[in-house]
Amino acid sequence: MGARKRIAAQARKEARKTQNSAMLRNVPSSPRKMRYVADLVRGMEVNRALATLHFSKKAASVDLEKLLRSAIANWEVKNDRKADEGELFVTKIFVDEGATLKRMRPAPQGRGYRIRKRSNHVTVFVDTKN
Fold it and tell me: 48-57: long-range contacts at Cβ-Cβ below 8 A with a sequence spacing of 24 or more?
């Protein structure tokens, strides 16, 4: 690794230490379905976001609720205190595409149709409003 890349990597690593996040990888649902649920809670206060996810009928909301609780716990550990009511907000949340499993389904006349079983990676950042 060259010096310029190393310096940039160290700068990213230092910036990451100040941010409070949680990642969920290889969730077996399509990124499109997960993005729909992630858009519901983007920018919300965390207690309101947890309530929204808890009462949502989408299957992806269960995974996202668990991830948000993890991000809140990470913030509490880094700051050595409990989060007050209305203090923490979902600052950033994004869904990336994961690995796609390719399967074949039998089709008429000896053919096969391709099935793509998609997965995704979700990252949630929580922080206080300045």
Answer: 49/90
